């Protein structure tokens, strides 16, 4: 039988509170990517089942709009006769026994089975004895100790084993709290004797670990540290063969870095930035002299306001302004006067003048706040 695994999808992800537009765009992209994977699973892949290797949801649940989108996808799968096996990850498992998470609620649906009860489970998918396969899963656990015990004690033969953890020896790492479980390649090698395929979710980059053992990554980047091709794994439980497919991305991420040379140069680069609604762009400008910082920042803010997609600009300032005792009042005054002169000279309309004034005031306020 043909089984597609969906890696960390983080549906409902809104993790960029400082930038509303980025929040919305990433939130939509996560659902859109998930939806297009479901479409592919139905046609052309025509799979019998889908596994999810944890963190399908970014949090214990999603908002109402997210629920409607998720249920729409599950319903499409049901109509296509596709079973869905969902492993709970660190993001979507409840952290106590007395609550039910969003992923657990899906268990009530006829075509969904959820492994999210803090203990290992084996699920049979299909019709026994004719065409079926078995999925084992060790969901997110209460502690690394419990997880280790379940990993070391696993002795059930299955077709596919789902895990949600980092791969490596992190015994000395302070990075690993109870939310970041881990197991070693040696442990995976032992488990391989019990599974044709092992799919490990959690880390957002794809990595082949052993034959038919993968760290599967994520459906899309959720931060600039997660750029790179994202992959689906399509497994055949009869032939025991597998194929990887790059996931079509709905957003284009661009990470730009350069040294400041002049404001004119910055203007040219700002004008040339990718700026469609599907662009997520970060610009890191290094060595910005203090005397150019204020206006450069203003230019970046204006560019950000004019961008339908996401534009993040980090100016790295060097040095300090010489006049340190200048009051906020006089900064405001000087720039406003300059602006008015400029608008008069260029015969700008009152509307444009007012808009520019607002930009300048915002920029000054931001500048002043940063100084604080
Ligand atoms: Mn995770």
What would your notes on this structure say?
The chain is an alpha/beta fold. The protein has two domains: 2-246, Purple Acid Phosphatase, chain A, domain 2 (4-Layer Sandwich), CATH 3.60.21; 252-371, no CATH class. It has nine helices and 16 strands. It has helices at residues 20-45, 64-79, 102-106, 144-153, 185-191, 263-271, 290-305, 328-345, 350-371; strands spanning 2-6, 49-52, 83-87, 112-115, 121-127, 131-138, 158-167, 182-183, 195-202, 207-210, 213-215, 231-236, 242-246, 252-259, 279-289, 310-318. The strands form three sheets. Strands 5, 6, 7, 8, 9, 10 and 11 form a seven-stranded mixed beta sheet that branches. It has a six-stranded mixed beta sheet with strand order 4-3-2-1-12-13. β5 and β6 form a beta hairpin. α1 runs parallel beside α2, α7 crosses α9 (350-371) and α8 (328-345) runs antiparallel to α9 (350-371). The longest helix is centred in the N-terminal third of the chain and has 26 residues, at 20-45. The chain starts with a strand and ends with a helix. The mean pLDDT is 90. The site of manganese (II) ion has 8 residues, from loops. Manganese (II) ion is lined by residues 8, 54-55, 89-91, 164, 202.
């Amino acid at each position: 039988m043909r089984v597609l695994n969906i890696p960390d999808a983080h549906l409902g992800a809104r993790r960029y509170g400082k930038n509303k537009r980025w929040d919305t765009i990433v939130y939509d992209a996560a659902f859109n990517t998930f939806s297009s994977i479901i479409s592919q699973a139905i046609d052309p892949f025509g799979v019998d089942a889908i596994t999810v290797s944890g963190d399908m949801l970014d949090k214990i649940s999603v908002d109402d709009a997210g629920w409607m989108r998720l249920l729409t996808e599950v319903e499409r799968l049901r109509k296509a006769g596709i079973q869905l096996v969902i492993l709970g990850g660190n993001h979507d498992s409840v952290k106590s026994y007395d609550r039910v998470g969003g992923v657990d609620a899906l268990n009530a649906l006829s075509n969904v089975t959820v492994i999210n009860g803090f203990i290992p489970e084996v699920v049979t998918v299909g019709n026994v004895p004719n065409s079926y396969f078995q999925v084992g899963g060790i969901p997110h656990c209460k502690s690394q100790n419990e997880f280790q015990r379940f990993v070391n004690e696993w002795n059930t033969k299955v077709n596919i084993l789902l895990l949600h953890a980092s791969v490596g020896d992190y015994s000395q790492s302070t990075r690993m709290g109870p939310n970041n479980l881990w197991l070693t390649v040696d442990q995976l090698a032992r488990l391989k004797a019990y599974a044709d395929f092992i799919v490990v979710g959690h880390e957002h980059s794809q990595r082949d670990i052993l034959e038919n053992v993968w760290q599967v990554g994520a459906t899309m980047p959720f931060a600039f540290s997660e750029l790179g091709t994202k992959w689906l794994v399509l497994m055949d439980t009869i032939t025991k063969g597998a194929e990887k497919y790059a996931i079509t991305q709905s957003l284009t991420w661009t990470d730009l870095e350069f040294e400041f040379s002049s404001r004119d140069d910055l203007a040219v680069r700002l004008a040339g930035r990718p700026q469609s609604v599907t662009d997520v762009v970060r610009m890191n400008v290094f060595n910005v002299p203090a005397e150019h910082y204020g206006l450069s920042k203003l230019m970046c803010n204006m560019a950000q306001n004019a961008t339908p997609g996401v534009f993040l600009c980090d100016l790295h300032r060097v040095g300090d302004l010489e006049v340190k005792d200048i009051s906020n009042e006089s900064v405001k005054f000087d720039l406003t006067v300059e602006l008015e002169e400029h608008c008069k000279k260029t015969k700008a309309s009152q509307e444009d003048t007012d808009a520019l004034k607002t930009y300048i005031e915002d920029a000054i306020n931001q500048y002043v706040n940063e100084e604080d």
